[in-house]
Amino acid sequence: MSSELQNVPALWTAVFHWLACLVYLSLLPRRRSLSQCALAGTALLAVMIPYMTLIAPLDGVPFNLGMTGFAALTLLPFLFLCGGDVYHHLYYCARAFILGGFTVSLAWQLYSYYRQRAAWLKPLWAEAAFLLALGCGVYAGMYFLERAHRREMQEMAPSRFSSLGAVLIAFIIYILSSLSYSSLESPFTTHIEAEAFNIRTIVYLGGVAILFAYHLQLCESFALQEVSALQNVLDMQYANYQQSQDSIDRVNRTYHDLKHQIAMLRAEIGAEQKLESLDQIERGIRSYEARSQTGNKVLDAILTQKSAWCIDHGITLTSVADGSALDFMSAVDLSALFGNLLDNAIEGVSRLPDPDQRLIHLTVSRQKGFLRIRVENRCVDGLTVDNELPRTTKEDRGRHGYGLKSIRATTEKYGGSMTLKAEKGRFVLGVLIPIPAGRG
Questions:
Q1: How far is 126 from 325, CA to CA, in rounded Å?
Q2: Domain locations along the chain
Q3: Which residues contact 425 (CB under 8 A, 6 or more apart)?
Q4: Mean pLDDT of the chain, nearest integer
Q5: Which CATH fold would you assign to the domain 294-440?
Q6: Which residues pair with 235 in a beta bridge?
Q7: Which of 56, 129, 245, 433 is the 20 to 30 Å CA partner of 407?
Q8: How far is CA 104 from CA 125, 143, 275, 426, in A?
């Protein structure tokens, strides 16, 4: 074909695919600084434009092989700038490639149509203004659609099957969109110029829609897995609370029995040294009783259980807690919240090689109509917070952070907020929840 409908300039093909990459790079978690991202983006555009100019005169198989290399070129910024494995990068690179193909095809088709009817669109500046305005409008719309699922994009790790499925869809869409521009004769090609361009734009639009629907399905599956995992955490924490409460009840009964036995021994034994031994026993029992009374039975049970575990494992756990401030929360939510708060801190200090640094402090208090919870512990140097979660060193990235996600979910259930801060070897997790009127 000789129509200019067909011949999208190499410059705009490169620019629009570059902008499509930027849409997804701006939404994904980055592992480089902003200046490094800007430098890498500029370098990518500087390479894409001459590469596309080089392969544009080609036709048939050589051109398609060149476009395969062009697609591989757009993968580089994902590999360099974003976290995650190669399948994660392939997934979003495939989506960016199809979005770029659709946008440049639509923009050039509309520009070619209106240029024949408006002479003012023929200068280069008018061409650039028209194409960039239309393209940026499409990308802005796609950005806001994708942004609604930004948390899933940053936390979800597409599987190998999902990523290769997206690449296969993108490959099929590209082949179908290019059939009418090849020399091959098939039932799916046309040599009517306007129709060929319409087919290319519509096929690309279908590709964008299919990949977006595919992405929504993956997000829904991820959300269901997350809900299931959070529910398992809740069930486990509540079961731990019930078990701890039973243990406390048994200890309390033993405490009362011991008090009577000590009173009887005092009456029967008169040796001064033996009386001193009994005093020590009594003081030990009383110290236990004072330690487990915060004003909230659920918190008492959890603190007793976690304190016992910490003592056995060389961890110092201290607390200053106004348990009565927690009365508006259910037992299930309290057991999940504090169980996960303390488990997260215990996991953090357990990594420290120096036993003297394994310190955890819990504060529960009222503050101007709010419930304020603060857990502070030492942590390994270099720990960073990424998307409200500590950046994981675990291989199983998809299952990372369910304890913190449970804390956040419980906090948001009561209209509160969770904050994390890691600096100078200290990790601080804060929870702020408004206390309902009449309960403060």
A1: 65
A2: 10-228, 294-440
A3: 378, 379, 380, 381
A4: 81
A5: Heat Shock Protein 90 (3.30.565)
A6: none
A7: 245
A8: 17, 16, 92, 50
